[in-house]
C-alpha cells in the first residue's frame, strides 16, 4: 500500500516553481464548487480583471489557460497561425527554440533571428529580417529568457512587428509580476505567462492576453484550430461576459482559487512596489555572490532581477553542490539548460521568494557548501556585502 | 481592490466536479517542491503505479496529462492519429461528438456509429461499420457517457476493434473508480479519464494509459505530433523510468499531490469495494427518486450508478428548481446537456460524494423544492424508500 505524500519543505530559488505564498496554499484547499456555479462565475470575472491589471492591458480576452505555461505558448501559436504562415522567431535561449518547434509542428515556416545565449534579442536584426521577409505574418520573442536570465526590449520589438504589419507573440512567463510588463503600452498582440514564477502560485495555469487584432485573426481563420482544447473560439464562449457561459471543458476550480489569491496579493502590494522589491533583492544577492567571486553571465543592463545566472567556480562539481544544498539546507537552485548546462547556476528570486531572508540564506548556504568542496571563493565577506547592498537601496 | 475568494461550501451531486475528500484538499495545500526534486520523482513513480492499479493495467505509459479530461482525449487522438486516417467513432452523447470534432480538426475522416442518446453503443453496428470500412485504423467510444448516464460494453467493443486490426480509444472519464474498468482484460489500447469524477479529486488533470501497440504507433509516426505540449514522445521522457527525467513542461506539482492522495484513498478502499459502494448508493437514490415519481431515462442494465439521469415532473421549471436547490440547500445537481437540455436532471453519486448522507439529503431536498413548486410528485414516501433500499443491500 502506498501512503500519503508529505514533501519536505524546501526553499525554492531555482527557475520556478518559486516559493508559494502560504495564503495561496490555503486558498487551494478551499471547498471545491461547480465550474458553472454563480459564485465561480464571479471568481472568473475577478480573475480576468486582475489579470488585466497584472498585464497592464484592457484586452477583453485576458484569461488563464487551464494548463501550464507551455500550453499558453501553444495556445497563441495554434490560434494565430495557419499552415503555410511565415513566422519570425527571435531565438536567444531554450524558450525561443520551443517557439520554433511550435511553428514547425503547425505547418508554418519559421524564420530565425538568432542572438547569442545570454544576450538580448537584437532589434536591428529583427528589422533587417522583416525587410527581407515582407510576407511574414507574426513576430514571436521571449521577454524574459528563463534559460539565460536575459531581458529583451519588448516595447521596441513589438513596435517593429507592428511597423511590418505582423502580430506579435510575447513570452512573459518569467517576467509577469517581477519586472515591467505593459502590454497596451507595448502594443503587444498576444502574451502568455505562467503562475509558478513571479506570481508565486503553484504551477499549472497559463495566463494569456490577446489584443483586438489578435482576436480578429482567430475569429476570421479559414482553417479550424487543430486543437479542440485550446481553440479560443470555444474558450471565449466559456470565459465570456457575465452569466451566459457555454460549457467547454471543466475548469480547474481549485487551481483558479490559487491564481485568484496570488493576483489579490499582487494588487495589494502594487505592481511598481513588486518590481522595486525584485530589483532590491537582486542587488543584494548580486553583492553577495560577487563577493564570493562568482560572475553574472548577462551584461548589467539586460539582467533579470528574478533570475540570476552565475558562473560556477573552476573545478567544482556543480551537480554535487546543488545536491548538497538540497539535502543539507533544503535549498533548491537551478542548473544550466541547453548550451549552458554544467556551466552556470540559475538563482531565482521570484515573487514571494524574493525577500531578504532568502537572499542572505542562499548566499551563506552557497558559501558553506562551496567551502566544503574546497572551491576557490572569497570567504567571510559575503554577509557584509549583502548588508551593505540593502543599506544602499534604503531597505 | 479585490478581496480573497471564499466559496460557499456546496454538496456537489452534478456530473462533476464531485465532492472532494477533505484529505485531498489538505494534500493540495502541502508545500510546493521543484518538479525535478528527487522527492517529486518518487511521487511521480507512485502516481504511475497507483494509476496502473486504478486502470487495472500493466501499461508502462500510464500517467496523468497536465490538463483536464478533454486534453486527455486530445492527447490520445493527436498522438495516435495522422492526417488522412479513417477513425470509427461511436456516438451516443455529447462526448462521442467531441471525439468526432477532434478527428476532423486533426485532418482525419470520422465514420460515425450512431446510437440514440440514453442507449449504449451497439456492438453489432460497430461490427458492420468495420466490415464496410476495412481501411479504418482506430475505433473510439465512450465507456460511461456523462451526458446521458449510459454504460457501454467496453470489453466487447475493444474486442471487435482488435478483430479488425484497429487501435481502440476509450473515454473512461466518468467510469474510473466508479464501475469496473479493466484495460488489460478489455485489450484497450488507449484510455483517458478525469480527476473530478469518481476519483473525487479536484478538476485539472487527465490520467491516460496506452498499450504497447499504441506506444509503438506513437513512436513510429511519419508526421510529427501537431501539439508540442501533448506529444507523448516528449512527455514519456519526463515521466520515464527512475532518475533520468528530461525536462519537458513544469508539472502541476500541487495538483499531483491531490491526485496521489485520491489514488491512495482508492487503494485503501479497494476497487471492488468502491464499485459496490457506488452501486448500493445508486440503488438507494433510485428508490428515493422513483418513490417521488421521477423516472430513469436509461434502461436498468445500462445505467451508471455514479450518474443518474432522471425525468423532470410535468410543468416544472427545471432551472428554477436547480437554482433553489443551490440557494436554499447549497446542493448542486446537473442540467441536461445537448438534446437532453431542459428534459432531465443528472444526479451524480461520484467517489466521496457517493454516500448515504448525500443520497437521503438529495432525495429530501428534491421533495422539498418540488413541493414548493407545486409539482405533481408523491410526498412523504421517499425517505422510507431510501431506508428500505439500504436494508435490502445490507448497508
Structure description:
The structure is a homodimer of 395-residue chains. With 395 residues, the first copy, chain A, is an alpha/beta fold. Chain A folds into two domains: 22-268, Aspartate Aminotransferase, domain 2, CATH 3.40.640.10; 271-392, Alpha-Beta Complex (Aspartate Aminotransferase, domain 1), CATH 3.90.1150.10. Chain A has helices at residues 22-28, 38-55, 69-80, 94-105, 123-132, 154-163, 183-186, 212-219, 232-238, 253-269, 271-292, 318-329, 356-372, 382-392; strands at residues 11-13, 61-65, 86-91, 109-114, 138-142, 144-145, 150-151, 167-171, 190-192, 206-210, 307-311, 331-335, 344-348. Chain A has a seven-stranded mixed sheet with strand order 2-10-9-8-5-3-4, sandwiched between helices. In chain A, helix 4 (94-105) links the parallel strand 3 (86-91) and strand 4 (109-114). In chain A, helix 5 runs parallel beside helix 6. The longest helix of chain A is centred in the last third of the chain and has 22 residues, at 271-292. The mean pLDDT of chain A is 97. At the A-B interface, helix 1, helix 2, helix 3, helix 4 and helix 10 of A face helix 1, helix 2, helix 3, helix 4 and helix 10 of B.
Give a quick summary of the entry.
The structure is a homodimer of 395-residue chains. The first copy, chain A, is of the alpha/beta class and 395 residues long.
Amino acid at each position: 500500500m502506498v501512503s500519503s505524500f508529505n514533501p519536505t519543505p524546501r526553499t525554492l530559488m531555482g527557475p520556478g516553481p518559486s516559493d508559494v505564498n502560504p495564503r495561496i496554499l490555503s486558498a487551494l484547499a478551499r471547498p471545491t464548487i461547480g465550474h458553472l456555479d454563480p459564485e465561480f462565475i464571479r471568481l472568473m470575472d475577478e480573475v480576468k480583471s486582475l489579470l488585466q491589471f497584472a498585464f497592464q492591458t484592457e484586452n477583453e480576452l485576458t484569461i488563464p489557460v487551464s494548463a501550464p505555461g507551455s500550453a499558453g505558448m501553444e495556445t497563441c501559436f495554434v490560434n494565430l497561425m495557419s499552415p503555410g504562415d511565415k513566422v519570425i522567431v527571435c531565438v536567444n535561449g531554450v524558450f525561443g527554440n520551443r517557439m520554433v518547434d511550435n511553428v514547425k509542428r503547425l505547418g508554418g515556416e519559421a524564420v530565425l533571428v538568432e542572438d547569442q545565449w545570454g544576450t538580448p534579442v537584437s532589434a536591428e536584426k529583427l528589422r533587417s529580417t522583416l525587410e527581407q521577409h515582407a510576407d511574414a505574418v507574426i513576430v514571436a520573442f521571449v521577454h524574459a529568457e528563463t534559460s539565460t536570465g536575459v531581458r529583451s526590449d519588448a516595447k521596441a520589438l513589438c513596435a517593429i512587428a507592428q511597423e511590418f504589419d505582423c502580430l506579435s507573440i510575447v513570452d512573459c512567463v518569467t517576467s509577469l509580476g517581477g519586472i515591467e510588463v505593459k502590454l497596451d503600452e507595448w502594443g503587444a498582440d498576444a502574451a502568455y505567462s505562467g503562475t509558478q514564477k513571479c506570481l508565486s502560485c503553484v504551477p499549472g495555469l497559463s495566463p494569456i492576453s490577446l489584443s483586438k487584432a489578435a482576436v480578429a485573426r482567430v475569429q476570421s481563420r479559414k482553417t479550424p484550430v487543430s486543437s479542440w482544447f485550446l481553440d479560443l473560439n470555444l474558450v471565449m464562449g466559456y470565459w465570456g461576459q457575465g452569466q451566459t457561459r457555454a460549457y467547454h471543458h471543466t475548469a480547474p476550480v481549485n487551481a483558479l482559487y490559487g491564481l485568484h489569491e496570488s493576483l489579490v496579493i499582487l494588487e495589494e502590494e502594487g505592481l511598481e512596489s513588486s518590481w522595486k522589491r525584485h530589483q532590491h533583492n537582486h542587488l543584494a544577492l548580486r553583492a553577495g555572490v560577487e563577493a564570493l567571486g562568482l560572475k553574472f553571465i548577462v551584461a548589467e543592463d539586460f539582467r533579470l532581477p528574478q533570475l540570476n545566472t552565475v558562473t560556477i567556480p573552476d573545478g567544482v562539481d556543480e551537480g554535487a553542490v546543488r545536491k548538497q544544498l538540497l539535502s543539507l539546507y533544503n535549498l533548491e537552485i537551478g542548473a544550466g539548460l541547453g548550451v549552458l548546462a554544467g556551466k552556470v547556476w540559475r538563482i531565482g528570486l521570484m515573487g514571494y521568494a524574493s525577500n531578504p531572508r532568502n537572499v542572505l540564506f542562499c548566499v551563506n548556504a552557497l558559501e558553506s557548501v562551496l567551502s566544503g568542496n574546497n572551491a576557490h571563493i572569497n570567504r567571510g565577506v559575503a554577509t557584509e556585502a549583502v548588508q551593505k547592498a540593502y543599506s544602499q537601496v534604503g531597505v
